[in-house]
């Protein structure tokens, strides 16, 4: 058989597009609904005649946004199952895109599962399951957001979109058109009202630059937190040496006049107009820290030009 039933109580099947050429087998298995997770052509549409059909038009690329389709596909599959239907989810090869859509459904149905656990469950009956690394990262993000039905308003999703915009812009050799400023975002983890936090201030004018969003008890190393919580690359190494001469931070709103110049790199000056001293640099193409770590894009403040202040609540 060219399609496989996934484990569990739900009548969901997975496979490749070749199964559509054997509609008699689909009907014999009781399939009533088909989800095509690729850019369908006229032949695919014809093959799906007589079935309820949903198309999710995505390519099997690591930077493709399949996350935005999770709510639509999940609702559609749930509705089909409530009608006592049987759902066949396919892509071209039945390995990556279709599997990703099914995993997203499993995560929203069983939130206690990790992405890897859900994948292991699926592989028990379908060892071909192999989502690309970009789709796996999006599934992890989806789970981090608790499979919210309104991902468009979630800060983590908005930051992820910003990362994608940055990557596309840098590939074209230009800065991104829209910059997301961390201090203008809502932050469900922001508990500065009740916990101690760390602030960076201009050494010359004492203007505040950046406020940590993590309780001090979790903040043994300012450099480690600032880099590891970067909205641009979660793979930065942790526990960086104390010899680092630079604080790397997220873009914040006082940088806007400098970033609006449309340059790939430039200087950052103290926002206090009575000071205006250069305190750091930004580079959309990245820069290397004194410890050897490459940070891209980078927004850096020189430690020699700012003070680290412990604010106690």
UniProtKB/TrEMBL annotation:
Domain Tyrosine specific protein phosphatases: 68-127
Record's keyword terms, sorted: Hydrolase, Oxidoreductase, Protein phosphatase
Keyword Transmembrane helix: no
PROSITE patterns: ALDEHYDE_DEHYDR_CYS, TYR_PHOSPHATASE_2, TYR_PHOSPHATASE_DUAL
GO molecular function, one term: protein tyrosine phosphatase activity
Pfam families named among the record's database cross-references: DSPc
Tyrosine-protein phosphatase domain location: 2-148
GO cellular component: a single term: nucleus
EC number: 3.1.3.48
Superkingdom, taxonomy of origin: Eukaryota
Record flagged with keyword Repressor: no
Family: Belongs to the protein-tyrosine phosphatase family. Non-receptor class dual specificity subfamily.
Entry protein name: protein-tyrosine-phosphatase
Species name: Blumeria graminis f. sp. triticale
Upper classification of the organism: Eukaryota, Fungi, Dikarya, Ascomycota, Pezizomycotina
């Amino acid at each position: 058989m060219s399609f496989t039933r996934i484990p569990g109580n739900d009548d969901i099947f997975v496979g490749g597009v070749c199964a559509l050429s054997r509609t008699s087998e689909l009907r014999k298995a009781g399939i009533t609904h088909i989800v095509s997770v690729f850019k369908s052509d006229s032949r695919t549409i014809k093959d799906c005649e007589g079935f309820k059909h949903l198309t999710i038009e995505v390519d099997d690329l690591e930077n493709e946004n399949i996350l935005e389709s999770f709510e639509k596909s999940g609702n559609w599959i749930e509705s089909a199952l409530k009608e006592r239907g049987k759902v066949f989810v396919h892509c071209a090869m039945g390995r990556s895109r279709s599997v990703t859509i099914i995993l997203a459904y499993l995560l929203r149905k069983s939130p206690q599962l990790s992405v890897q656990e859900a994948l292991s469950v699926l592989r028990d009956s379908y060892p071909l399951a192999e989502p690309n690394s970009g789709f796996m990262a999006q599934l992890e993000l989806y789970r981090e957001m608790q499979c919210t039905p309104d991902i468009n308003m979630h800060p983590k999703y908005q930051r992820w979109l910003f990362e994608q915009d940055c990557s596309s812009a840098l590939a074209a050799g230009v800065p991104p058109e829209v910059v997301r400023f961390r201090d203008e975002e809502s932050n469900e983890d922001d508990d500065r009202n009740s916990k101690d936090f760390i602030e960076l201030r201009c050494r010359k004018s004492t203007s505040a630059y950046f406020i940590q969003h993590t309780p001090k008890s979790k903040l043994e190393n300012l450099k480690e937190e600032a880099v590891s919580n970067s909205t641009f690359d979660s793979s930065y190494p942790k526990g960086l040496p104390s010899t680092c001469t630079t604080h790397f931070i997220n873009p914040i709103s006082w940088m806007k006049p400098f970033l609006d110049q449309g340059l790939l790199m430039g200087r950052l000056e103290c926002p206090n107009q009575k000071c205006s001293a250069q305190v750091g640099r930004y580079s959309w193409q990245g820069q290397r820290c004194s410890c050897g770590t490459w940070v891209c894009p980078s927004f850096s403040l020189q430690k020699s030009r700012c003070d680290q202040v412990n604010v106690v609540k």
